[in-house]
Write a structure and sequence with these properties.
heterodimer; A: mainly beta; B: 112 residues; mainly beta; four-stranded antiparallel β-sheet; globular
Chain lengths: 116, 112
């Protein structure tokens, strides 16, 4: 089964410092990996995805993620955190069935708190 | 382009009732997926529709059903509501061959 794990429930970082939100994956075949962000009382916003190609993926709002096949990881990073980055972050992996339908399996989420 | 819209945004029902939630995808998107988000179980996939056909289904009881119309709008229905059905229900749409799903703001359902 295609799955992802987010080992940290919460990450705290000071504004201006770099941030990392961790994600590891377990998939058969080539993984399709995603990061989404959720602000309070809102839906999910797409940040970035890895399908193939460069291991460093750049996304929205200055976020990037590094795909590491040997460590089966897809950590989300940002060089300089903002207070407004405080939110819930979800890593996800796409899975498919025999009907060509597909869906996302999400990690349990990591709450990011950026303090002034 | 307008994003994914979901109606209603908030809903309060009592146990045993049924509820219908609506989702309008981004224009041109023909795939619509539904997810349930709860504090205990996190985000869980319900089902996916494409061209009015259910292509994929998650591990939910038959009380949860959905459909898609010819204009790609989708509805999900939950019958015989239980307290545990209280959740944020999220709809997402995507282009037929695009991997990225774009989410709506969700419908928050409270079952009393």
């Amino acid at each position: 089964a295609q799955s992802v794990a987010q080992p940290e429930d919460q990450v705290n970082v000071a504004e201006g410092n770099p941030l990392t939100v961790k994600c590891t994956y377990s998939v058969s075949g080539n993984p399709y990996l995603f990061w989404y962000v959720q602000y309070p009382n809102r839906g999910l916003q797409f940040l970035l995805k890895y399908i193939t190609g460069d291991n460093l993926v750049k996304g929205s709002y200055g976020f990037e993620a590094e795909f590491n096949k040997s460590q089966t990881s897809f950590h989300l990073k940002k060089p300089s955190a903002l207070v407004s980055d405080s939110a819930l972050y979800f890593c996800a992996v796409r899975f498919s069935n025999s009907n060509s339908g597909y869906a996302l399996n999400f990690g349990k989420g990591t709450s990011l708190l950026v303090t002034p | 382009k307008a994003g994914v819209t979901q109606t209603p945004r908030y809903l309060i029902k009592t146990r045993g009732q049924q509820v219908t939630l609506s989702c309008s995808p981004i224009s041109g998107h023909r795939s619509v997926s539904w997810y349930q988000q709860t504090p205990g179980q996190g985000l869980q996939f319900l089902f996916e529709y494409f061209s009015e056909t259910q292509r994929n289904k998650g591990n939910f009881p038959g009380r949860f059903s959905g459909r898609q119309f010819s204009n790609s709008r989708s509805e999900m229905n939950v019958s015989t509501l239980e307290l545990g059905d209280s959740a944020l229900y999220l709809c997402a749409s995507s282009l037929p061959v695009q991997e990225t799903q774009y989410f709506g703001p969700g419908t928050r359902l409270l079952v009393l």
